[in-house]
Design goal:
single chain; mainly alpha; globular
Length: 469
């Protein structure tokens, strides 16, 4: 064998060994980060699961939430409080570090949820919802920032899908748990809805304590995480991210560095997409038991139980569509496909007469909007660079996601049962608009990539960067 041939073989073996080492470290990150991120992200859905299940028990009457729009206002005020604190909370994740930030806010979330079991009036509920919104404000954008910091762009959508799958399993299981807790009505002098808040609030407190040791820091500080990567492994992890987009280490924090990113119009397109998506997700997650009870005629316990299976089903499409999106580096086509599936689901839910067909429509709609949450997160995270720009974008899209929740909390109108015409048409229209935004982005990204290929443009201030669409 010639020296040249031997050298080539040696280089090939070293490359294979390097790729194996990167894969091993990536799996290590998956196990530590995606597991706890899925649990933490589920807290928002855990809250919506508790309050939606409690809404078909005696809670609305007990607290006076059944008068006027008080129930919708209690949902709205949570979202408003969350939106107001999202940008500073996301910046705080970077400054304080994930371990301190997420453990503190998760424990606070659990404590506030637990205390909600002992309130007596709708005004106290409003206060609890404001505090809960503040506590929750940084969890979604902070986790999106942390996950996007750890993975290459072609790996992101599947990781957001893992995160979303954890959410869904907790939410769906929470529906079954809520059914069991509601049957404790009268035990210990507490009503069923009080048991829901008490037990699941205590669970969140325990998760908050465990989070300090479980969650990992940002890549450049990963060796400081509890029993995680060695310094050599941390170097490999940061090197692969640096090769992908050259933004491992953030620029010094200044107000100017934060504010200048709001001049990028892409952020507003991403934010609008999340607003339109959450119109649907809020309506379904908060009101699905009510739709099942008032719109389809199921009993209270049946409504709580039947609201769980669509979320278990949603794990399948979110993982499959995200796997395809990452494998073939597709973002726009996956979002469009999911949007069409959601439209089909809402057509079944709104215009069919058979209860079975309408219930199947909730499966399609739930699976599609959950899949698009992962797809849109992969879409925005694949097309920006810079740690502070990631923080700004994560906060902006989560804030607009929350504003979509404000609107979504009002589109399911009790007086429109059993068809809920407003909710149906708003949901369908919102996803037609998402398809239009994706089409506009695709044209823009194609033109920009063409200019970059010809050497006429540097994208995202990063040499060699290209948009993924």
């Amino acid at each position: 064998m010639s020296i040249k041939s031997l050298s080539s073989t040696q280089v090939s073996d070293e490359l294979k060994e390097s790729l194996r080492e990167e894969k091993r470290i990536r799996l290590k990150v998956d196990f530590r980060l995606c597991t706890i991120a899925g649990l933490l992200c589920s807290l928002n859905l855990l809250d919506s699961g508790i309050i939606s299940a409690a809404s078909v028990t005696s809670m609305l009457h007990d607290l006076g939430l059944d008068q006027g729009n008080r129930y919708s206002v209690s949902i709205l005020i949570f979202t408003v409080a969350s939106v107001c604190f999202q940008l500073p909370a996301t910046i705080a994740v970077r400054i304080l570090g994930p371990r301190i930030f997420f453990s503190v806010v998760t424990f606070c979330f659990g404590l506030i949820t637990l205390c909600t079991a002992f309130i007596h009036t709708w005004k106290e509920m409003i206060l609890m919802r404001v505090l809960l919104g503040i506590a929750m404000s940084g969890i979604y954008p902070g986790l999106a920032l942390l996950i996007s910091s750890w993975y290459r762009r072609e790996e992101l959508q599947l990781r957001f899908a893992f995160l979303q799958s954890g959410q869904l399993i907790v939410l769906a299981t929470g529906g079954i748990v809520n059914y069991g807790l509601n049957r404790l009505h009268g035990n210990g002098g507490l009503k069923g809805w009080q048991w829901m808040f008490l037990v699941q609030g205590l669970f969140a407190c325990v998760i908050g304590i465990a989070t300090y040791w479980w969650i990992v820091d940002f890549p450049e500080h990963s060796s400081q995480s509890f029993r995680f990567l060695t310094k050599e492994e941390a170097h490999v992890a940061t090197s692969r991210i640096q090769r992908d987009r050259a933004d491992v280490v953030p620029a010094p924090f200044t107000a100017k560095e934060i504010l200048r990113h709001f001049l990028d119009l892409k952020i507003y397109g991403f934010a609008a997409s999340f607003f339109l998506l959450n119109l649907v997700s809020t309506a379904l997650s908060y009101f699905l038991p009510i739709i099942l009870q008032s719109g389809m005629g199921f009993s209270t316990n049946e409504s709580i139980l039947l609201s769980a299976p669509p979320y278990y089903y949603a794990v399948i499409p979110v993982v499959l569509s995200s796997f395809v999106g990452d494998k073939y580096r597709l973002r726009g086509p996956v979002i469009v496909f999911n949007s069409l599936c959601l439209i089909a689901g809402f057509v079944m839910l709104g215009f069919a007469d058979q209860v079975a067909v309408r219930y199947v429509g909730t499966y399609l709609a739930t699976g599609a909007y959950v899949s698009n949450w992962a797809a849109l997160n992969g879409y925005q995270a694949s097309n920006i660079t810079g740690q502070w720009k990631r923080a700004v974008t994560a906060a902006a899209v989560t804030a607009c996601n929350g504003l979509g929740g404000v609107a979504g909390s009002f589109i399911v109108r009790q007086q429109e049962a059993p068809k809920y015409v407003t909710a149906i048409w708003v949901s369908i229209s919102s996803h037609i608009f998402i398809i239009c935004i994706v089409a506009a982005f695709s044209i823009f990204f194609y033109i920009a990539n063409s200019k970059q290929t010809k050497g006429r443009k540097i994208i995202e201030e990063t040499e060699g960067f290209r948009y993924t669409y």
